[in-house]
Amino acid sequence: MQSGFEFVNKNSQTVLSLSKLADIPISYHREIPKNVTVKEVCIKKERTGEWYASFAVEDKKEPANPANSDRHVGTDIGILKHVHDTDGRAIGSLDLKVHFLYAVLASLSAFPFLALGI
Predict the structure, then answer these.
(1) pLDDT of 59 higher than 80
(2) What is the DSSP letter of 27?
C-alpha cells in the first residue's frame, strides 16, 4: 500500500494529494489503468517553471508472450563494448572524435562542405 499520496476527485477534477504538502490538480498524459497499483510518485520542476509527475506502477498480470519470439533480439549498452545483444554479438566502442571534429568545423563555417559530408 502506498503512503504519502493519493488521487482524489474534487469538483470533477482529479487531484494528486501529497500528504503534508499540497493538493495539486493534474491532467493525465494517458490514463493510469485500473488494474495497476501506483507504487511511487516523482515530482519534477522544469526550467520553464512547469511541474510534472511521473508514476511508477505495479501490474500483477503476466505479460503476453510475443508472436515469433525467436525473431526478437535484446540489446544492452556495455562498458568495454558499445552494444551487446542476446545472440552474443557485440559492437565495439564508437569513435566520436571524428564526428565531433566535423561538427566543430562545420559550425565555424570555415568548411561548410563538411556539413554536407562531401
Answers:
(1) yes
(2) -
